[in-house]
Amino acid sequence: MTIPVAVVMGSQSDWETMKEACDALSQFGVGWKAEVVSAHRTPKRLVEFAETAVDQGYQVIVAGAGGAAHLPGMIASMTPLPVLGVPVKSRALSGLDSLLSIVQMPKGVAVGTLAIGAAGAWNAGLLAAQMLAARDPDLLKRIADWKTSRADQVLADAHLGQE
Ligand code: RP5
């Protein structure tokens, strides 16, 4: 069976953030494979990954990087698959550099950019699952049920007190 979602990142140091995407995918029963693919340090590996992603059976790619974060855009330039970009919080500029590097793509090369950091990574996993759910009624129901249970929980905890 093929794995539908590739989760790639520029460095081992991105894993703490990017594992959130994998957690979200696992929560909805979506298969994933995570690996380090650096745009700057291993450019040949990047090209090989992007060019073979379709043949590997992937349907969505989640790519996270920090700083001068070229990884998602470079992958998007070489594959027809949808690419979701996660700006990893950088040490120098708190991820604003990552965000701007990923989000401002030229017309015709699309990267769906998420929020900086862990929330963005988790949401990338959720969004990848939602994309796959368009063709998977069981997955769509799992996501719908999860949204309902979250809403129920918020309503149950909505009353903070009175006097
Ligand atoms: C980027 O540089 C990576 O995506 C990472 O967020 C950042 C720092 O990498 P390390 O120096 O921690 O390997 O390429």
UniProtKB/TrEMBL annotation:
<protein>
    <recommendedName>
        <fullName>N5-carboxyaminoimidazole ribonucleotide mutase</fullName>
        <ecNumber>5.4.99.18</ecNumber>
    </recommendedName>
</protein>
<comment type="similarity">
    <text>Belongs to the AIR carboxylase family. Class I subfamily.</text>
</comment>
<keyword id="KW-0456">Lyase</keyword>
<dbReference type="InterPro" id="IPR000031">
    <property type="entry name" value="PurE_dom"/>
</dbReference>
<comment type="function">
    <text>Catalyzes the conversion of N5-carboxyaminoimidazole ribonucleotide (N5-CAIR) to 4-carboxy-5-aminoimidazole ribonucleotide (CAIR).</text>
</comment>
<feature type="binding site">
    <location>
        <position position="14"/>
    </location>
    <ligand>
        <name>substrate</name>
    </ligand>
</feature>
<feature type="domain" description="PurE">
    <location>
        <begin position="3"/>
        <end position="154"/>
    </location>
</feature>
<feature type="binding site">
    <location>
        <position position="41"/>
    </location>
    <ligand>
        <name>substrate</name>
    </ligand>
</feature>
<dbReference type="GO" id="GO:0034023">
    <property type="term" value="F:5-(carboxyamino)imidazole ribonucleotide mutase activity"/>
</dbReference>
<feature type="binding site">
    <location>
        <position position="11"/>
    </location>
    <ligand>
        <name>substrate</name>
    </ligand>
</feature>
<keyword id="KW-0413">Isomerase</keyword>
<comment type="pathway">
    <text>Purine metabolism; IMP biosynthesis via de novo pathway; 5-amino-1-(5-phospho-D-ribosyl)imidazole-4-carboxylate from 5-amino-1-(5-phospho-D-ribosyl)imidazole (N5-CAIR route): step 2/2.</text>
</comment>
<dbReference type="GO" id="GO:0004638">
    <property type="term" value="F:phosphoribosylaminoimidazole carboxylase activity"/>
</dbReference>
<keyword id="KW-0658">Purine biosynthesis</keyword>
<dbReference type="InterPro" id="IPR033747">
    <property type="entry name" value="PurE_ClassI"/>
</dbReference>
<dbReference type="Pfam" id="PF00731">
    <property type="entry name" value="AIRC"/>
</dbReference>
<dbReference type="InterPro" id="IPR024694">
    <property type="entry name" value="PurE_prokaryotes"/>
</dbReference>
